Amino acid sequence: MSHTDPIADMLTRVRNANKALHAQVEMPASSQKVELARVLRDEGYIANYDVVREGSFDKLVIELKYTDGRRRVISQVKRISKPGRRIYAKKDNLPKVLGGLGTAVISTSRGLMTAREAQRLGVGGEVVCFVW
């Protein structure tokens, strides 16, 4: 994995921590990662997130979410658009994940949002990732 794609790095950390049933996962913060964490929280995939100031840089702490029976809420996270191959979706052609059961995260001119939200606002953008 190259370190030029912070979102892929974040998704990998979340995926690994989730597989290992960790309570939380930490990573260097960036505005885009915090935005993605906000979308994941609003969609109910993570319990919460926090940006902690540590020395000269900020750290993003994500609290993972599990059901009562310690079942994972996130079953899969997939990076769609990559630095080497960007994937864009027009407003009338936004992706559906698992027939609407999953969530597609789109980076629009109005920030990161779900495909559902982008549809409602009538905007398209870069398809960041799928979560289900």
Structure in a nutshell:
This protein is an alpha+beta fold and 132 residues long. The chain contains 3 helices and 8 strands; from the N terminus they run αβαββββββαβ.
Task: Tell me the layout of helices and strands.
Blueprint: H1 6-19, E1 24-28, H2 31-42, E2 46-54, E3 57-64, E4 77-79, E5 88-89, E6 103-108, E7 111-114, H3 115-121, E8 125-131
Antiparallel strand pairs: 1-3, 2-3, 4-8, 5-8, 6-7, 6-8
Structural class: alpha+beta
Number of H- or I-type helical stretches: 3
Please indicate the percent range of residues in DSSP E strands (runs of 2 or more). 25-35%
Described by the principal axes of the CA atoms, the overall outline is globular
CATH fold-level name: Dna Ligase, domain 1
User: What's the CATH architecture name?
Assistant: 2-Layer Sandwich
Task: Please state the average pLDDT score.
Answer: 94
Along the chain, the helix and strand elements come as HEHEEEEEEHE
Structural notes for this entry:
The protein is of the alpha+beta class. It has a single domain (6-131), classed as Dna Ligase, domain 1 (2-Layer Sandwich), CATH 3.30.1490.10. The protein is 25% helix and 33% strand. The chain has helices spanning 6-19, 31-42, 115-121; strands at 24-28, 46-54, 57-64, 77-79, 88-89, 103-108, 111-114, 125-131. The strands form two sheets. Strands 4, 5, 6, 7 and 8 form a five-stranded antiparallel beta sheet that branches. A three-stranded antiparallel beta sheet has the order 1-3-2, covered by helices on one side. It is globular. The mean pLDDT is 94.
